[in-house]
Structure formats: C-alpha cells, structure tokens
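Q: I have four molecules that I believe assemble together. Could you output structure tokens for the complex as a whole instead of separate predictions?
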Amino acid sequence: MTMTDQTMTRDQYTFWKEIEVRWGDMDSMGHVNNTVYFTYLESARVEMFRTIGITGRQGNNSQGPTLVSVSCDFIQQVVFPAIVDVGARVESIGHRSFRMSYGLFLHGTDELVATANSVTAWIDYAAERSVEIPEELREALGKYQNKK
Amino acid sequence: MTMTDQTMTRDQYTFWKEIEVRWGDMDSMGHVNNTVYFTYLESARVEMFRTIGITGRQGNNSQGPTLVSVSCDFIQQVVFPAIVDVGARVESIGHRSFRMSYGLFLHGTDELVATANSVTAWIDYAAERSVEIPEELREALGKYQNKK
Amino acid sequence: MTMTDQTMTRDQYTFWKEIEVRWGDMDSMGHVNNTVYFTYLESARVEMFRTIGITGRQGNNSQGPTLVSVSCDFIQQVVFPAIVDVGARVESIGHRSFRMSYGLFLHGTDELVATANSVTAWIDYAAERSVEIPEELREALGKYQNKK
Amino acid sequence: MTMTDQTMTRDQYTFWKEIEVRWGDMDSMGHVNNTVYFTYLESARVEMFRTIGITGRQGNNSQGPTLVSVSCDFIQQVVFPAIVDVGARVESIGHRSFRMSYGLFLHGTDELVATANSVTAWIDYAAERSVEIPEELREALGKYQNKK
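A: Yes, here they are, computed for all four components at once.
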C-alpha cells in the first residue's frame, strides 16, 4: 500500500534514542497519536545533534539546522505503556542539507512500528537562508552514515 | 532540495479548514513546531471525514479510517499570531486506501507555508486489517478530488 | 468535593477568547485531556496580554509576565467537536504579581466546563526576578477587573 | 507571593516517577512550558495507579479515576536537556475522592522546580458519577500516604 520498507533491521541504524511513551501520547483511538511519532523523531534528531555538538540557536550560534521535510510510515500501533527505540542514520549529505532515515522499534525487539525520513537544511539564522555545511560538521555527520 | 511543488495554488484544493495557531504551538525556536503541522493536517482530515459522515470508532462503527503514512514539506516558518488555511483534496482512491494532498497557506493569502501528503487505509477495527472501501464512501471521497 | 464555585456566570468575566477544540486535544478516555485546559487558559491569557500591549520576550522587551501558579477545577467533560469560550478577569493586582480567574463555558451557553485561577509575576528577564508592575500596566490590567 | 511550600523535601514523597524532558516540551520562552508540567503529573499519577492495579477504562473496568482538580506552583524554570523526578504521595482519602500532592525535583537533587496538588474522584463510568472508593483501593492508596 505504501513504499514502506518493512525489512529495515536494527543493524542499519547508527544512532539510538530510547523514548518512554507517555500516557498522554495516546489519542482517543487508544494508541499513540500519529503526530507524536514526529516528536519522537525530533527527540532522536536533537540528541544526535547534541552528541555531534550542534546546539543551534539555543547555543547562541549564528548557524544551525532547520527541518525541511519529514515523512513517516506507520506500520504498527503503539499502546502505552511502551518504550520505543528510535534508530537513526545519516542517509546522504548534500551541499546545504542532509537526509536522515529512522526506524522505530518496540524496545529491545526487531518489531518495527514505523519508518521515517527527514531532510535538514543548514541555515544562517540572520540571513534566513541555507548555507554550505561546514567541513567539520560534514565529517561528524559522516560518522552516522551506514557504511555497510 | 526537496520535491516540494511550491507552485501549488489555492484553487487546487477542494476542502478547507481554518486553523487558529495557538501560542503554545511554537517551540523554543520561536515558530510553530514542525510536529504541530501534523495536528493541523489531522484537524483538516477529521473535518473532511465528518463532512462526509465518517465518524470512525467514536461513532461506534466497526470500520473506519487509519493513517498509514504522512509527509510534510516546510516552506516558510509560521509565527503566532496567525491563522493557517489548510487546503486538502483527495488525490486518488485505491481499493483499500486513498491518498490526500494538502496545501497550508497563511490565512486569506497565496503564501504557501507547507505542502503535505497522506495515505489513509480503510480498516475493520475488530479484524485489525484494511478492507475494501465501501462504494458509498468511494463516491463521497470522489467529490473532493480535483477534477480539473 | 472541591471548592469550585459552580455558580460562576458569564457576566463575571471581562475578557473572552473562543477556543476551537482540536480532535487531537482528546486523550484515550475520549474527551479533552486535563492538561489541554491549561493551553486554553494560556491562549486566553496571551490574547488578553496582547490586547493590553504585553508582548513579553518575543517583543524584545526586558520585562514581561511569567506564570507563577495555576489551578483548574474540572466540572464537565468536553468532547470534540466543540468550541470553548474562555472568560477571564483580573482578580487582584499586587506589587509584583496579579491574580486572574477564568470560567470555561461551552460556546454560547452558560454551561460551565471548568473554572481556573492563576498568578502571574512581572519579571525582569535579565535579572530573573520579579519587579514592580509599571503604573501603565497596572491601569491596563485594572480595566479587566470585575468592578461590580 | 504564592502559598508554595518551598521547604518540601524528597523524603516527604512515597512514589517516584522519572520524566525525561523532551526538547519539544519547551515553548518559545526557551523553557519547559507550564502546561507540560501537568503531563508530568499525569505520567506520575498513571504510573502510581498502574502500580496499585488501577487501569481505568482501558482495562475495561466499569469504575476508575477521573481528575477533579489540579494546581501547580512553578518555582524554577526547567530547560532541556533535563530529567525531572516527580515525587508523589496520597494526602488524604475521602469517601469518593482522594487528594495527592507532588514535588518536582531536578534529577537526583533537592532542587525543587514545582509543587502540585490534585483531587481524583472515583467514578462509575456508565453512571457518570462518583461512587464510594472500594475498600481494597482505599488500603492500596493508604500505602502511599506519608505516615511520618
């Protein structure tokens, strides 16, 4: 029905962030609301950025990341209580932006609940436009690519 | 950088939902958080479904819609106070699912702030699997296709 | 059971903000989640502040409001679709803070769904401490007291 | 300015829930939004209820808890990244409702960031009214009272 690659396995991801599902993440259908998955992706991305040393505007930097696009394929409902392991990796690095992909698994299992993709641009905040990704950042992001 | 079609115009959408941006929709970057756009899409979709007569599980129906995938391209930041006009249309209707596309505009203008796409499956809640879209629903959804 | 004054009537409030309930405001109990009422209060407060001319840190001011405490008594469940009319008034104005009270009604009716109270301090952002409320602001806030 | 008892210490709480602050919990002021504290309280309460065996409507029970009122005093701003330890205890148990109080601390420290109180009623869902708290539940709740 969708182009979701349900064969994604944990070993294809290079960065991990555990998310404890909050009761309030569920909607009136009784499972985690689709919009909340994007906050899980955001938490994983922010954590990876912090590991690299990207703190964005909060760190009073003049440059930083901004999300350009994001998509998510929902494979399985998640119900509280649960922990979701968000696997992430850098997919490709362009001049002014980079792609990431994600696999969301039930904690400690190979059960995939969602896959996702994002494009992040590197932005000069004052100029409000994308700029060349600094070489140092390019190298740091490269470490999270799946080299296999 | 992305495949966003920034030439989308208001006349390409067949259903509209105005969303008043809440102050709390903004994140620490000072603009509407990317995850909140998906709640705007959800509100538009739910409203369109209600107009058609789809009430899902809340209406104690045995069948209803479930979101399979959704994506969003962010074109322009939105800052409170603002009203966002979400334009939606049915893109295509398959056997057990249908595609929708969306254009988010600053209220009353042609300024596009985001475009989005979604796939919704038609689900038998008890069986927990997608089923054939009923003919009556197919016709109702068809009215929101862009026939031009 | 609580000290909620369920006799509050609409004419006791001096400022109004209509809130359109979003489908996503509901939790897995199938009604608007208790934490969301606080975003409704926030929206009403921000709107009143904007009417007065208080823009806070976003307006690059050195002083602004910060919430010190807030409480809410839940009287009746709210289910989507609904519009909630949030009535607010300034209760009392101290040296460095002011009290507000709120009544949340089903749109256009006298049906009270919740009452609430808040204390807002006037803060010097750099010094990170409360300061004397400026005379001009004191007068502006005074207009929203219930003089009856 | 408020009646916050800033002398609350960790040993006064009988149940603990660690909450990892999400980046998205912050608002445009750059710290955790006041409304989000109430989701932290909710998470602690739900966890305590689950420990006791209260699963509410989700467990297909005919009776369960419903929040009647909640208040929070904000003592110190919280900024991501952070973990908040929510301490809770049962304050008093009435015929059809019980009071709880909470202290939110920066993880592993005595730094109090907020205190809170709530009243929860015991509800018959079908009858939509509060009913007598069952003896077994009364005993279970009693274990979380601060006996000192």
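A: One point stands out. Strands of chain B lie at 15-20, 63-74, 83-93, 97-106, 112-124, 129-130.
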